[in-house]
Amino acid sequence: MQAYLVRRLFESALILLGITLVTFILLYLVPADPARQIAGRSATAETVQNIRDQLGLNDPFFIQYWRYLTALLQGDMGRSYLQRAEVSELIASRLPASLLLMLAAIVTELIFGLTIGIVAALRRNRPADHGLMIFSFVSISAPQFVIGILLLYVFAVKLGWFPIGGYGTFSHVVLPAITLGFLGAGWYSRMMRSSMIDVLGQDFVRTAQAKGLAKGRIILRHVIPNAILPIIAMIGIDIGLFMSGIVVVESVFGWPGIGQLAWQAIQRVDIPVIMGVTMVSATAIVLGNLLADFVAPMIDPRIKTK
Amino acid sequence: MTETVLTVRDLSVQVATPSGAKTVLDGLSFELRAGETLCLAGESGSGKSMTALAIMGLLPKPMCRITRGSVCLGDTQLVGLPDAAYRKIRTARVAMIFQEPMTSLNPLMTVQQQLTETLLEHDACTRAEAPARALQLLRDVQLTEPERRLKQYPHELSGGMRQRVMIAIALACDPEVLIADEPTTALDVTVQAEILDLIRALQRDHGTSVLMITHDMGVVAEMADHVIILRHGQEVESAPVRDIFSTPRSEYAKELLGAVPRLGTAPPRPAKPQGVPVLEVDDLSVRFDVRGGVLNRVQARVHAVEGVSFGINAGETLALVGESGCGKSTIGKALMGLVPWQGSVQVMGRQTRGMGPALMKPVRRDVQMVFQDPGASLDSRMTVGDQVAEPLLIHGLASGSALKDRVEHLFRRVGLSPDMMARYPHEFSGGQRQRVNIARALSLSPKLIIADESVSALDVSVQAQVLELLQEIQDEDGLAFLFISHDMAVVEQVADRIMVMRLGQVVEEGARDAILRDPRHQYTRRLLSAVPVPDPSRQRPERIETESIGSPIWPKGREPDRLKLEEISFQHRVAV
């Protein structure tokens, strides 16, 4: 187990290193000139050139990359070009809000997705199943900004049950979490349904019936734990999906997280901030997958941590 | 007359199919008496498993339903019993064990959890007593190290051990009737012998009645007091076991018993002129790495095949026998270049060591394989004609009308009509599919056919026909066969020579009769004594005690000791 842990952490570090290189290359190739952005439209070519020199943008690619990497390893993500602040501070002030939103969304999508999937599988090919699958289809297809705005209109504007936007109390988090988790709930319900149907046809379920166990016990003790296994690996991958969703959802609900920070930075080519946010979300995805890989053997004794 | 425990009257079951309801069990009646063993025997589709599920109330809903008849357990009528009442009967009064021990246990629960769950459901004991009862049950089924087994998960147990756990669960509440649906079909022959012994012993101690479902007439002869032979859902014959075997009345029973291969009854193999060597294998080893640790380095190796040497001449059949995991199938794969191997393999005098896929291509023409599962080895979305033609196209041997003629010829050759060429695999029976596979293997006119358990999945009557076909092909074309099988009786019918393997090494080899009539190695004797004999009047031989067989996995840097073969008579060699 320890050897496995060490190896997986080592692999994860390598993956993150790869991500720094790829994002750095992409941003290096972007035609927009950050120096021009900082200097403003009316600045002279000389001013722009000075800014370029100051930021080290004229140095060869590998020197720039090396400078970035060594600073990053010391915890220094650089300074924002446009806001007078360290990137690490900007992210640190925004990250808790985003993590809270993501956690709430995961809980939401699991509760909805798994319940819908279980019910649909048990009512397979009956009206309830068809209805739930149409719902899951809609939730997968609907764009998040549409869902967000719809929820805002109905539950915040018309009914007034929840605040329109902002951050602070439990009721603030409900609508953004549902919006963010809506897509995942659709996916999970479909996966859980097919996984349940698969497990229901397994020999050991027949054994459980032959034992004379009650139906509820068979479902809870024998079917659901086996059906949920393939879902666990998905939760790790999901964090990646959230990162794209969070940009949209945070804008719609005015949620002060890193999604909004990323959005502003992209519009204004604030490269250090974009790099910072990318690294943080990449780390989150890698950690999410790592966590899923460690949780799986705890539930499934067949997976050996070698 | 002892009392009747289970009475089945006029039981009929229908299955809904897209083309309407199909009767799969038609008016079956029987009585099961206390302490008796009743065998339902028949080939696939005879309705024997349906009977078991109908008694347990576990027919798959809503496709299957009981249309007629009654099932009485003592005074309780089971047909139409509400689910809540049925639950109290399952395992408590009628218990069932299944064919597939590998998949019949929940992989996420320990043995103890799966045992105690049953006990508690039926209030057989209190929660505090449950662990002790579970331990006692494992002792009853003679599982080794029962204390440790309780804490283990199913994947840590072998097939035989899992079947013992299944039996322990089934007997947890001391049921009146135990239904065993092909309980040993998926197990090795020595393990099968142990499990059958165990069922007999438990039956004797507890007075349980056993309803045994099997296709294996050897198992019937060993276990049954009374036999019912089923075909297409109908009873063909019902008689005490001795009468069925000595004086079968119905035509079908005679046919069925006639098709059963009996060890020790095959006619002598005809003497053949020595053919040219087709395959020469020298010091073949196949090892798989087991990796682990921080740097994922090789920590151990599975020595699947270790230093095996043999040769096959044209027109000759060499049988490779042994229990699962002995490396016999791996040898077949190695010869086809499907797994990495070391040593020397010469096909028609050409050394294949170090050949890449391109160089192997002409060699593959000479060596073709027929696999165990006739359905799974065909592509279900391609017509059988195209599948037989495909090798010819790949090797560029025929095209256009010549190709069509060749495929037609192959179909006739294996006893299929050429109009079947445009059909898909699902339209064929298992035996026909295996014929298609054989046609596919023959399409390249190979010199050697590797038959890996090629008839194991077939019913006995079909098995006999396929074996006959293979023999015909060999006689006509002088093909060499490498026949990989676990079934000694089948091997006796086809083999000229036999090689017995254990843990990747050969323990004994020689002419068929030398091995079967005069086995010298302890392991060969054990294998042979475990084969169930389809003759109820024969005294069961004293079983040779099982020793632990060991493991082919060795830590890095250590290797298994090579067995040395000593020639004890002409071409009969035994490990010392």
Give an overview of the whole structure.
The complex is a heterodimer of chains A (306) and B (576). Chain A has 306 residues and is mainly alpha-helical. Chain A folds into 2 domains: 12-73, no CATH class; 95-299, MetI-like fold (Orthogonal Bundle). Chain A contains 12 helices and no strands. Chain A has helices spanning 2-29, 34-39, 45-55, 61-73, 87-122, 127-141, 144-158, 170-200, 203-210, 215-253, 258-267, 271-299. The mean pLDDT of chain A is 86. Chain B is of the alpha/beta class and 576 residues long. Chain B has 2 domains: 4-257, 3-Layer(aba) Sandwich (Rossmann fold); 277-374 and 446-459 and 474-575, P-loop containing nucleotide triphosphate hydrolases (Rossmann fold), CATH 3.40.50.300. Helix content of chain B is 33%, strand content 28%. Chain B has an 8-stranded mixed sheet with strand order 16-17-18-13-19-20-23-22, with helices on both faces. In chain B, strands 6-7-8-3-9-10 form a 6-stranded mixed sheet, sandwiched between helices. The radius of gyration of chain B is 26 Å and the shape is globular. Chain B starts with a strand and ends with a strand. The model of chain B has no long low-confidence stretch (mean pLDDT 88).
